[in-house]
Specification:
The complex is a heterodimer of chains A (259) and B (450).
Chain A (H helix, E strand, L loop, with lengths): L3 E2 H6 L6 E4 L2 H5 L1 H17 L3 E3 L9 H6 L2 H17 L4 E4 L2 H10 L8 E4 H10 L15 E4 L13 H8 L4 E3 L29 H12 L3 E4 L2 H13 L7 E4 H8 L2
Helix pairs in contact in A: 3-11, 7-8, 9-10
Chain B lengths: L1 H28 L11 H13 L8 H30 L5 H5 L1 H30 L14 H38 L7 H8 L3 H9 L7 H25 L7 H10 L13 H11 L26 H9 L5 H5 L1 H4 L6 H22 L9 H5 L2 H5 L6 H5 L6 H15 L5 H13 L17
Helix pairs in contact in B: 1-9, 1-15, 2-10, 3-5, 5-6, 5-7, 6-8, 6-9, 7-8, 10-12, 12-15, 15-19
The chains are: A alpha/beta (259), B mainly alpha (450).
Chain lengths: 259, 450
């Protein structure tokens, strides 16, 4: 796969249409890397010139800020804004709603102003403008699929329709879980929860969420957030439902089926 | 004359104590930190109309929304009738507006009030059933045990009593008028509608009079019942007025300013901490000092006690009606964790009341060595939050429990260095490797080759 690093691009005197912000999970987690690759593959196929920051990308600071450590957040934000501004980045697309929220809503107050989009709206536009076409026989017709709203995409940024529009392009039978859209149940990862054990309780949040998906009878759960994906993998495993439910990011579903 | 003096005295005492309490609540709210929330007035008025007046979010459950509207419209509109009762009380008149606006218009208005009164009773009865018999889940949570649970019942029962007094009073009045009238016109037959207009009575009281038109009760007894109801009704209203500021029912007033002053920024956006920003930027680029004017007063990070919170969070606490929609939607609470966003709001209000009482008793500088963080809200509760914003999304009057949770977390981590091991490791990784996991930043693009 050819993916250009920003520093190399600059050295070659080029500038990308858009910067692909990969995020930490997208870079390091083996499961989420597959989402990253799928999205990069789509960008390549469609012919969008993009670059990643590579080793110059740092965590946006979201988990630190929400855990209460503003110092670590500010340090990382400072570093990232310096990098992005030095490269004169204008447009960013990211597959992570947490990165998306921080870049879009929290960096402007710190001097980082970019046009930031999440890959769900980015993919929707590519579908709407006919740049992404689903290949013959690629439809998921007759298959039940349900979409899990990420808190930082939905409630925090009011993006509910774009990922669903992307799924509609696959012609699948979209069913909703008991709690969806603005009432969507969290996967349990936000606010740095993913990086520590749950507090004492009756059950894990991702297990409760997996139960909702199982109740729909859907064979595929689509997500649009790497943290959600990691939590879902675990939740479905705990319910022994791996054989029955396939977990996919919307980018993977599209990449597998585009012509 | 004695009745008039008694009334004015009662009214004065009620209004005095109500005003005093309102001023103390205002002072308590202003103990909070400044936060500028008066930009975009158009949008703010819109929010107030949609969320406070229009109760938009209540309609997530249409049946409850309609019943709530009964109570609310009933409460507000019947206050127009209270104006007459109030003036009657001062001037010693009886139904002052009747001769002024004419009996037909008067009877229409009174009919509206009476229908609303019946609807209020219906609403209150259903709500009492939901709380006490069918026990809707969100009303049975631990933070609602004791006074908060009784508080709701007191209000609902008081409303039923007040409305019943109002209807009884009107019915007696109609009966008395009939007695006087039919003595003169013993064989005349009138339809109910005609009777209505004739005496300026309401549709409910006239119908009731028709049913219980019995000579068994003397006119004198009716007059005594009418007067007793009149006094109990207005005294009840004065008592209610003074109970309001101590109760969850304060939301009927504060819902309005609270939705007006609601934060307009994206709910995913956390409040920036400019002093930390300054420290970090200047540690890398001291030459940018000019961008950050102002003194470096030693600052507290986050909130340990109520005074460290924004005034808006304190108003949120007084506005909370303890309905528990936030808690019902909270993923942590749903899975049996200790966190309950409603409890966060109730704790904040209780603590603020305590701080206010201390100021009244011992002066501004008194400290009782207690804090919201620790004495009211535990670390375990704070740690369970996923910052998913479900509580914020649910609140019908735009309260943000999340804002308080995050400010308390900031204090916990940055003031007390109270951090679970896993988070300490995560912070370390983020500082050293720029990622929450222990991976080298040099390997960030390895996925391309894998």
């Amino acid at each position: 796969m050819t993916v250009k690093i920003m520093s190399e691009m600059l050295a070659a005197g080029e500038s990308p249409e858009v910067l692909f912000w990969v995020g930490c999970a997208g870079s390091f987690d083996q499961r989420v890397q597959r989402i990253t690759k799928s999205f990069a593959e789509i960008l390549n196929k469609v012919g969008i010139s993009f670059a990643i920051l590579g080793s110059e990308e740092a965590c946006t600071g979201d988990p630190a800020r929400r855990a209460g450590n503003e110092f670590v957040f500010q340090m990382l934000a400072y570093q990232n804004i310096q990098t992005l501004n030095n490269y004169n980045i204008k447009k960013i697309v990211t597959t992570c709603p947490h990165c998306f929220n921080t870049l879009k809503n929290e960096y402007p107050a710190l001097g980082g102003n970019y046009e930031v989009s999440h890959h769900s709206t980015f993919l929707q536009e590519l579908i709407d403008t006919g740049k992404i076409k689903i290949k013959e026989g690629g439809s998921m017709k007759g298959k039940k699929i349900t979409f899990h709203d990420s808190c930082y995409l939905g409630r925090a940024n009011n993006i509910y329709e774009a990922p669903r529009k992307v799924l509609e392009a696959l012609d699948a039978d979209l069913v909703e879980m008991k709690s969806c859209r603005s009432n969507g149940l969290c996967c349990g990862a936000g606010g740095a929860q993913m990086f520590k054990e749950d507090e004492p309780g009756d059950k894990r949040i991702n297990v409760a969420r997996a139960e909702e998906a199982i109740a729909t009878g859907a064979s595929t759960v689509a997500a649009a957030c790497p943290f959600c994906m990691i939590m879902w993998e675990d939740g479905v495993k705990q319910k022994n439902a791996e054989a029955q439910i396939e977990l996919k990011d919307i980018a993977e579903l599209i990449a597998e089926r585009m012509s | 004359m004695i009745q008039q003096i008694l009334f004015v005295l009662l009214a004065a005492v009620a209004i005095y104590f109500f005003t005093k309490k309102v001023m103390s609540i205002r002072r308590n709210i202003l103990l909070g930190k400044d936060e500028a929330l008066n930009d975009q007035p158009k949008l703010r008025w819109r929010n107030m109309f949609i969320f406070a007046l229009g109760q938009k979010k209540m309609f997530n459950n249409p049946l409850v929304a309609v019943l709530h509207i009964f109570l609310y419209v009933g409460f507000v509109i019947i206050n127009i009738e209270i104006l007459e009762i109030f003036l009657d009380g001062i001037l010693g008149t009886h139904r002052l507006f009747l001769p002024i606006i004419g009996s037909s218009l008067y009877s229409i208005l009174i009919s509206c009030f009476e229908i609303l009164a019946v609807l209020v009773i219906v609403g209150c009865v259903v709500f009492l059933i939901r709380r006490n018999i069918t026990k809707v889940n969100r009303f049975t949570k631990p933070e609602l045990k004791g006074f908060p649970f009784r508080d709701a019942n007191y209000i609902l029962i008081t409303e039923i009593v007040l409305m019943s007094l109002f209807l009884t009073m009107n019915t007696c009045d109609v009966l008395i008028s009939w007695r006087n009238f039919f003595l003169l016109h013993s064989h005349t037959h009138y339809s109910l509608a005609e009777l209505n207009v004739l005496f300026g009575g309401g549709i409910i009281s006239t119908s009731l009079s028709d049913i219980i038109f019995s000579p068994a009760i003397s006119t004198h007894a009716l007059e005594i019942i009418e007067r007793t109801c009149w006094w109990l009704h207005i005294a009840g209203i004065f008592a209610f007025l003074n109970y309001l500021p101590y109760s969850k029912h304060l939301h009927i007033i504060l819902a309005f300013p609270n939705s007006f002053f609601a934060r307009l920024n994206n709910i995913g956006q956390m409040e920036n901490m400019p002093l930390i920003q300054k420290e970090v930027v200047l540690s890398f680029q001291p030459e940018r000092a000019a961008e950050f004017p102002g003194d470096d007063a030693p600052m507290k990070f986050g909130a340990k006690d109520v005074k460290d919170l924004s005034w808006k969070s304190l108003m949120d606490a007084y506005s909370c009606s303890e309905c528990g929609r936030c808690t019902a939607a909270c993923p942590a609470n749903q899975t049996g964790k200790k966190l309950s966003p409603r409890k966060i709001m109730m704790d904040t209000r209780d603590r603020l009341e305590e701080v206010g009482n201390n100021i009244d008793k011992h002066g501004m500088d008194f400290t009782d060595n207690k804090t919201l963080l620790g004495d009211y809200v535990s670390v375990e509760e704070l740690r369970a939050c996923t910052t998913c914003n479900a509580c914020v999304e649910q609140c019908p009057i735009l309260i943000s429990p999340l804002n308080i949770i995050l400010e308390l977390r900031r204090s916990l981590v940055m003031e007390d260095s109270n951090v679970p091991n896993e988070w300490a490791m995560m912070f370390g990784n983020m500082e050293n490797n720029q990622a929450p996991w222990k991976f080298s930043n040099e390997d960030r693009a390895n996925w391309i080759k894998s």
